[in-house]
Amino acid sequence: MLVSRTLTATFSSVMAEQILRRYVRRVAKGAWWLATPWRIGERLDFLRQRAEAQARATEFALLVDAERMRRAARESGIPIPAVEPLDLFDDAAVCNAGGLPLEKILWPPVAPQDVTDRWSAARFLIDQWRKRSDLRSLYPLALEGNRHTDFGHWLQNEGAGELHLGEVALALTLDVLDAGMADRARQSLLANQMVAPVWPHGLTPAGMPRLFRWLMRHSAGEPGPRHEELWWLFLQAAQNPARELMLAYSFTPAWQELHPDGLTVIGREAFCAWFASEYGASGGWVDSSTWPDWENPALQIRTAYWARDTWRAAHPDALADEDRARALLDWLSSPAARLSDAARIWCARLDAGAVARELVRPGVNMIGHFCYASGLRVSAESMVEAMGRVGVSTSLRDVWTDAKDDPHHVDFRGMEVHDVTVLHTQPEPFFDEAYRRAHLFERHPRTYRIGYWYWEFDTIPDSWVDHAEKVDEVWTATEFVARGLRDRLSIPVRTLFPGVKLAPYTSRSKSYFGLREGVFTFLFTFHMMSVMERKNPKGLISAFKEAFGEADGAQLVLKTSFGDRHPAQMQELRDAAANANITIIDQVLSPDEVLSLMDACDAYVSLHRSEGLGLTMAEAMLMGKPVIATNFSGNVDFMDESNSLLVPYELVKLGKPIPPYDADLEWAEPSIGHAAQLMRRVYDNQAWAREVGARGKASAEANLSLEAAGRRIAGRLEEIRSLRRRATG
Predict the structure, then answer these.
(1) How does DSSP classify residue 658?
(2) Would you tell me how many other CB atoms lie within 10 Å of the CB of residue 586?
(3) What is the distance between the alpha carbons of residues 441 and 326, in angstroms, rounded to a whole number?
(4) Which residues does residue 651 pair with via DSSP β-bridges, in sequence order?
(5) Does 33 score more than 70 pLDDT?
(6) DSSP letter at 413?
(7) DSSP H or E run through 645
(8) Residues near 86 by Cβ (< 8 Å), separated by ≥ 6?
(9) What is the residue-averaged pLDDT of the chain?
(10) Where on the phi/psi map is residue 557: left (φ > 0), alpha (ψ -120 to 50), or beta?
(11) E strand or H helix at 476, and its extent?
(12) Is the Cβ–Cβ distance between 709 and 499 less than 8 Å?
């Protein structure tokens, strides 16, 4: 009894002490906020953000619980009840689904005279689409198109008068149709590692009610998509649910693993039956017989061939030559293949000769950065075009990088249909995550994998050796990079230049970019994410200042991007450029504008300390610009004394770690004085400079063309094919 009373007293004492401490903390906080009233707004923002985060976590937990219950029901053999589709055209239905009042989900109706910008134009079109069932009947896919569709033509003719749109308002609505209004919202959803894996079917009728609630409550606004973009996405999805199911499959690796040929005529019936049972889906959109062909017949046959062991057992070398490919097609048209009647009839109706030729055509799966504005993107695009020019087909996947990627990830949805996969992404940081970031299931049996890597030194990091164990060989653009790779790797390393071409671009004046007309202009372009110390723009500034005074008729332009991610270095650059005719452009320009800027300038200069390739130098040479560059690293594969102006250098150690580079690595320190002399000579003797540019252009056109690159790549692919055939007997 005494022990009990003692414990009770002790417990009461501890509780009283905790309550007192809590009270003291609250009093102290209150006193602090009273003493600093100017920070009340900050405090309220913090409390609001914390409350929103807690609400988001609670809502997501409910989402996860619902999915867990669904899976448990399926594992127990319990049928999933049919999901009631969300009626996006009924205000009460969307309020109920979103759990919000109408003013939190929609905006006040937009009158024609209120269409004054992009967003009001989008709201106006959404309003019309929701309330006008006649428009939805006449133009059922209007929100997927642009101004050149039937709906766009209607708007530009009788629609403008019927909707009372003035000239400016009509132009804005047409711009919205062209803008891909749903693209950013769709990409945000695909990149959401919380929601996408749990609710991959969220844009289909079976998943839309829950996804609508989540996005309306927790994903609209900065930094996510706006309400207008979300509404456009949902309305676009609702008008073509079969397409949404096919897109969902294309970016859900778990589904691809279960049904590896799920979008082919061969396998889509089974996939649809599974999906309907798994998610309680019903309606014509899960009837695969109504689907359009997602890919051409040869790609569908290829996909099914690698998905089905029985096919490969019956025809093990079906893709080796046309005769064997035709034998496979004949077999598929017969009862022996045990296909469904619909699939067998489809196979029998194919043009066997044309499909057989396409089946044996060489091809590559390319997984790379197709939406990330960088040299890696240009390299990947060049390789794809180079292969296309020599008859090598490609199946493409984008490796998602971050929220600043172009919102076109969904456009790269090729599967691993070919025998060779090129992973065109650096060993770090995304190589091990390439398939996940591409939303792609790794095919079984595994393809022959090639890493396409760039580096800026003659030795590679130790970690790259481990990454190389995941591929069968490595390609790189220049011998400078290849030498460092060969020293450390036991697998084949090949130098295969990606090819360079100038895309069509608009000719623009210097003044378009805020530059002075009539002034001789030197240009250097670089990416702040590519390590400023390596690109060495400060060295170029020093050379320019040594060569020219403010009274001279010359200017230097430094074009960069993503400076906001490196504010201290950007300030260093601006400080270095002060009191000189130097313009810094820190902006993401379109590819067209980047080439236009280069075209508007008179000479190109790169005093880099090291380069894996030197793409911008190659592009400037193709334009006929005189190019001044450090005589070191990847660019010397295509630059010499006959076609460019090379700057001597000394090899120096970095001396300190500059991530991702170690302190003991060596790079070039270009001669500032020699560079200044060359810049001055180019300025003083512009006729001679034009001759240098002409020689550079002729050399680049002869040696760096896409056709030449394509032939080299095709040759190596044929070697790989022959080696693999011999290895398998």
Answers:
(1) B
(2) 16
(3) 29
(4) 668
(5) no
(6) B
(7) strand 645-647
(8) 93, 94, 97, 205, 208, 209, 212, 238
(9) 91
(10) beta
(11) strand 473-476
(12) yes
Give the integer Cα–Cα distance in Å for 241 and 247.
10
Q: Does 48 score more than 60 pLDDT?
A: yes
* Tokens standing for residue 590: 């379109």
- pLDDT at site 27: 62
Q: How far apart are CA 687 and CA 608, in angstroms?
A: 26
Average pLDDT over residues 364-369: 98
Are the C-beta atoms of 499 and 704 separated by less than 8 Å?
Answer: yes
pLDDT tens string 436-463: 999 999 998 899 999 999 998 888 999 9
Residues 6 or more apart whose CB falls under 8 angstroms from that of 147 comprise: 155, 156, 174, 177, 178
Query: Please, are residues 248 and 200 in contact by the beta-carbon 8 Å criterion?
Result: yes
pLDDT-based confidence at 15, cuts 50/70/90? low
pLDDT of residue 2: 41
Token duo for residue 300: 């569908």
Q: What is the DSSP string of 50-116?
A: HHHHHHHHHHHHHHHHHHHHHHHHHHTTPPPPPPPPP-TT-HHHHHHHHTS-HHHHS-PPPPGGG--
CA-closest candidate to residue 245, choices 266, 223, 224, 276: 276
Amino acid identity, position 561: S
Strand 554-560 to strand 649-653: parallel, antiparallel, or no bridges (unpaired)? unpaired
What SS3 class is residue 594?
Answer: helix
Strand order from edge to edge, sheet including 645-647: 582-586, 554-560, 520-525, 603-606, 627-630, 645-647
Query: What is the rounded end-to-end Cα distance, in angstroms, of the chain?
Result: 88
* Whole-number Å distance between alpha carbons of 162 and 171: 15
Residue appearing with tokens 């196979």:
347
Q: Is 78 left (phi over 0), alpha (psi -120 to 50) or beta?
A: beta
Q: Is 217 exposed, middle or buried, given 0-12, 13-18 or 19+ CB atoms closer than 10 A? A: middle
> 584: which 2 tokens?
């810094």
- Residue 28 reports pLDDT greater than 80: no
| Burial classification of residue 480, based on how many CB atoms lie within 10 Å of its CB (0-12 exposed, 13-18 middle, 19 or more buried) | buried
Characterise 645 by phi-psi region: left (phi > 0), alpha (psi -120 to 50), beta (else): beta
Query: What is the per-residue pLDDT for 69?
Result: 83
User: Distance (Å, rounded) from C-alpha 3 to C-alpha 623?
Assistant: 93
Could you tell me if 602 and 521 are in contact, meaning their C-beta atoms sit under 8 angstroms apart? yes
Per-residue pLDDT tens digits for 201-255? 999 999 999 999 989 988 765 568 999 999 999 999 999 999 999 999 999 999 9
Residue-wise pLDDT tens digits, 72-93: 888 888 888 888 999 999 999 9
Mean pLDDT across 4-13:
50
Digit-coded pLDDT (tens) for 142-174: 998 899 999 999 999 999 999 999 999 999 999
Reported as a single tens digit per residue, the pLDDT across 620-663 is 999 999 999 999 999 999 999 999 999 999 999 999 999 888 89
- C-alpha span between 20 and 23 (Å, rounded): 5
Per-residue confidence at 31, pLDDT binned at 50, 70, 90?
low
25 band by pLDDT with thresholds 50, 70 and 90: low
Closest alpha carbon to 277 in 474, 115, 80, 463: 80
Residues 6+ apart with CB under 8 A from 623: 502, 598, 599, 693, 697
Task: Supply 278's token pair.
Answer: 């798994």
Closest by CA position to 578, among listed 556, 552, 553: 556
CB of 152 closer than 8 Å to CB of 374: no
* Calpha distance 284→238 (Å, rounded): 13
The CA distance from 246 to 51, in Å, is 37
Residues with Cβ < 8 Å from 498, sequence gap 6 or more? 379, 380, 382, 383, 386, 477, 709
